[in-house]
Structures are given as structure tokens and as C-alpha cells.
Amino acid sequence: MNRLKIIMARCKELLGKIASVRNKSAEDKERDAVEKAEKTYLRKLANTSKYTQERTDNRFFKMLLTLSLSVLVVFALNNRELADKLTVNIPQPLLEVFIDSERQEYTYRTVEEATDSTLRMTKRYVTEYIQDRETFHPDKALMDKKWGGYSRLYWRTDKKHWRKANRILKRKKKVMLKRKMTRSVQPSKPEDMGDGWWHVKATFIDEPKRGTPKEKTVSIFLHGKYIDLKMPSKYENQNEIGWVVDKYSVTLQKGEMEKDGEI
Fold first, then answer.
1. Partner of 229 for a Cys bridge, out of 83, 185, 242, 246, CB 3.0 to 4.6 A?
2. pTM (predicted TM-score)
3. Is 156 exposed, middle or buried (0-12, 13-18, 19+ CB in 10 A)?
4. What residue intervals traverse the membrane (predicted)?
């Protein structure tokens, strides 16, 4: 009797295992059916005209961006000024930028942001150029260095214009030293007139060794341009962006000239 009970229990256990295997097989079949349906849906979606067009557009923009970057890198490698600093400007509308599997980080600026940054830098150079060219101290050695070759003023002046500017500065230095005059300059915010032209209103404050200081309000017009400036490495900090002045004029607000022909 006991033996019969044992046999019945084993048969019941075996039937339970068979039922479990059947249920598991049914679950696997259901899961496989769901996966197959999902794959079929994705294949149909990939073949729709909208998805195909978006994928084609993405490939086109990626190819265009890659080609642009390649040209920029080749140009930079052949340009000493750009070899150290390579800035990539991505125009709007913005393209999606993904971080790759190696967790490389990418930073970018829009064209508008880059333009604003360049404009601010150029305005600073315009102001500094006027300060360098018009400020005067009655110290010959100091002015020889300030207005001489390899000065900041020299590196920010176009070479053809420098020959003319140098003659004017020498004449002005002679007059100012004779008068023992100190001149300080208070320029206004530079006004961008387009096509490389800038206009700045400034106040010249001339202080003689003896006597009352005299103020003059002037209008300064100058034209600047960017060039591939070749210069020794020890002077590179004098002109980091390659911007030089090739035209420059100063007039009194009333159009009057000084007695010695200099303002």
C-alpha cells in the first residue's frame, strides 16, 4: 500500500513538471510573437517616406558638416595663426550633437555668438589704437618706444600706412616736445560704420607744463582689416587677431586745424 502511494506521488510530481514545461513554452512563444510584431512595425516605419527623408536629410547635413570641418582643419594646419586656436562655428538652426561612446565632449558657439565676440574684440582694438596713437608724454625716450618700430602701434598699423603715419608721428612728437605738452585721450564708444570703417568721438586734454589745460573735441575715422600677419613670436601678444589700420584721420569738430598743422 505504501509503495502504491509513493508511485502515485511521483506520477503527480512528473505531471506537474510536464505542465510547467508546457506553460513556459507558451510564454516563450508569446514573447517571440511580440518581438516579431515589433520588428515588423519598425521595418514598416523605416520604409515610410517621412522617416526615409529625415534619415536622408540627417546624412546630408552630417556629410556637409564633415566636409566643412575637413576644409577648416586643412586651412588651419597651413595657417600659423589658426594652428594654435581652432574655433568651429555651427550656424543656426542648431544641429544635434551627440556624445560618443568614449564620452567625448563637444562645445560650440553659434555664428551670432562668435560674431558678437569678434565685434567686442575689434572695438577694444579700435580704442587701444586711438589711445596708443594720440596719447602723449613729454618724454622723448618714452615716446620713441611708444611710437617706434616693433611697438604695439607699429604691429597694429598696416605696413603701407605705417610709412605715412610714421612721418606724421615724428612731426607731431617734435611739436609736442617743444611745447612740453602732455595729452590724455577720452574716446567714446566706437561706432561701426560697416565695411571696416569706424567712427569715434574723442576729447583731447592738452596740459602744458605751465598754463591752463585745453580740451578739444575731435572726430576720428579709421579703417581696419584682418590680415595674415607675420611677426616674431615674442611680439605675438601685440596683435593676437591680425587686425591692422590702413586709413586714419582726425578732425576737430569745427573743422579747424592747429597752428602747426597738427591736432
1. 242
2. 0.57
3. buried
4. 60-77
